[in-house]
Design goal:
five-stranded parallel sheet, 47% helix, three-stranded antiparallel sheet, alpha/beta, 8 strands, binds BIS(adenosine)-5'-pentaphosphate, globular, single chain
């Protein structure tokens, strides 16, 4: 089962990906997470990527394609994977096609702009295990403490309002054209991400059966 999750920033791709991964025992590959790890480690790639990420711009195609190809070649991807946040541009989608990777389904998550801004501005993530919370929608039992591992929760640098606004503009311009790209291949299923998590999860599973 090889899947792509597409949709605007903050629509809930990462949250649903973690639920699907648990159910189907496949891996989640988030290029955002891979890039944030490179930034944290202070690698050359991380230093280059940080500038783009903090502003909410896309990192250049060559850097991200290289990173993704390296990750997808690892043995844990053999049973299937969710590409969460990749491809983000037509050249990235073409590079994926050229690499010979077969994609079964592309889930296209949709939500209103106001919902997205509310979700991103209240998001908190565990520093240790990466679990995703929201200060009001999905609050942790203890403020700023992860329910799953007790790790400290933090707010992403690009979850500030200026970067959020830019990310939405960038999405419309550079990523939304992918919807037609995969529609033409007959692979897209639209998922209404305005709903409660349980329903989005069930609809996503339904789309895969
Ligand atoms: P990336 O990390 O991919 O961020 P993104 O696409 O902007 O997506 P997010 O992680 O912000 O949102 P999400 O849809 O996963 O939402 P989540 O589940 O967390 O990319 C970051 C940056 O890296 C990019 O800007 C770019 O610079 C770079 N980058 C990454 N990939 C790249 C690529 N391929 N090419 C070039 N550059 C790349 O949910 C959001 C919040 O809502 C959470 O708080 C959650 O608890 C809450 N929530 C979720 N669902 C619900 C619900 N149904 N009801 C209520 N609350 C909900």
């Amino acid at each position: 089962m090889n899947l792509i999750f597409v949709g605007p920033p903050g629509v809930g791709k990462g949250t649903i990906a973690k639920m699907i991964v648990e159910k189907f025992k496949i891996v989640q590959i988030s290029t955002g997470d891979l890039l944030r790890a490179a930034v944290k480690e202070g690698t050359g790639l991380g230093k280059k990527a940080k500038e783009y990420m903090d502003k909410g711009d896309l990192v250049t195609d060559d850097l991200v394609i290289g990173l993704l190809k390296e990750r997808i070649a690892k043995p844990d991807c053999e049973n299937g994977f969710i590409l969460d946040g990749f491809p983000r541009t037509i050249p990235q989608a073409e590079a994926l096609d050229e690499s010979g990777v077969e994609i079964d389904t592309v889930l296209n998550f949709t939500a209103l702009k106001e919902t997205i801004i509310q979700r991103l501005s209240g998001r908190r993530i565990c520093k240790k295990c990466g679990a995703i919370f929201h200060i009001t929608n999905i609050p942790p039992k203890i403020e700023d403490v992860c329910d799953k591992c007790g790790g400290e929760l933090y707010q992403r640098d690009d979850d500030k309002i200026e970067a959020i606004v830019n990310r939405l503009i960038v999405y419309k311009k550079q990523t939304a054209p992918l919807i037609d790209y995969y529609k033409n291949k007959g692979k897209i299923v639209d998922i209404n991400a305005e709903l409660p998590l349980k329903e989005i999860f069930e609809n996503s599973i339904g789309a895969l059966e």
